[in-house]
Amino acid sequence: MWYWASAAKTLTAMLTGIAQEEGYLSIDSSVSKYIGVGWTSCPPVKESLIKVRNQLTMTTGLNDAVADPYCTLPSCLTYKADAGSRWAYHNAPYTIIDQVISKATGIDFSTYFYTRIRNKAGMDGVWLTLDYNNLYFSSARSMAKYGLLLQAGGIWDGLAVINDSSYLNAMINTSQDLNLSYGYLTWLNGKETYRLPQSQFVFPGSLCPDAPDDMYAAMGKNGQLINVVPSNGLVVVRMGDAPDNQYELASFFNNEIWKLLNEVI
Questions:
Q1: How far apart are CA 173 and CA 228, in angstroms?
Q2: Closest CA to 221 of 258, 247, 182
Q3: What's the average model confidence in pLDDT over 136-153?
Q4: Torsion of CA 66, 67, 70, 73, to 10 degrees
Q5: Is the pLDDT of residue 251 over 70?
Q6: According to the model, what pLDDT value does residue 198 have?
Q7: How wide is the angle at C-alpha 96 spanned by C-alphas 90 and 102, nearest 5°?
Q8: Alpha carbon of 132 to those of 17, 92, 99, 202: distances in Å?
Q9: Backbone angles phi, psi at 188, to 5 degrees
Q10: What is the pLDDT at residue 249?
Q11: Of 158, 222, 147, which is closest to residue 186 (Cα–Cα)?
């Protein structure tokens, strides 16, 4: 059993789509509708602009340069820009999606995930809360099973885990024009430009130039990876200890893996 780190963001993205499909929430509704007003320190009119869609696309406009970007307390969630006008990889607003789902469904977040995704796909694993973070731990085989579930368009052994193909398609394609290489909490390869966590710089070219252009990926701290490549049917996962410091960014480490994979392929 090992932690997924931010690779688990894709689990939350799919679960949000399932909650919308079941009529519990709309990603185009304000976050405040589900968890109440005052969940940030923003002026009320600015807070009301933040939609669930902004949480999924990292465009909440909340300040990611606070002392603790993982902190989900209102005092840590301060205004930087209007929602939808700025892309920044910010963990705290993502974590609050858990609250949105549990409040909207009336079901504990972990229970909702286990019954809607984990059990249906025959996965193992558990969500554990560490400080402000809700982390998923599983075997590498279960990480691969989730990749195969994505590869199969949300179908597992003939059973539709998620029926909303339009949502799933949006999840693995460009979700906004601020970072072309980001879908719904999912990284995308083969785009003209990309942004990286803790940076506002727009880099030219593909996120992982040595990987297939149609690859999309879940990437987490210390090299926790799921790569899905529709064109050749590959699902590649990597779990384990942190790689060398030169590969601190998961996308750089991922690209090095693909250089080696290409030699074999």
A1: 13
A2: 247
A3: 98
A4: -80
A5: yes
A6: 87
A7: 155
A8: 23, 8, 12, 29
A9: -125, 135
A10: 79
A11: 147
Q: Please give the Cα distance from 227 to 234 (Å, whole number).
A: 8
Instruction: Tell me the one-letter amino acid at 97.
Output: I
Helix, strand, coil percentages, rounded to 5, for the chain: 35, 15, 50
Question: What SS3 state is found at 193?
Answer: strand
Q: What is the mean pLDDT of residues 241-261?
A: 88
Compute how many other C-beta atoms are within 10 angstroms of the C-beta atom of residue 132. Answer: 16
Kindly report whether the global pTM for this prediction surpasses the value 0.90: yes
Tokens at 252, concatenated: 């750089």
How far apart CA 93 and CA 15 sit, in angstroms, is 16
Q: What is the three-class DSSP state of 37?
A: coil
For 23, left (φ over 0), alpha (ψ -120 to 50), or beta?
Answer: left
Q: What letter represents residue 123's amino acid? A: M
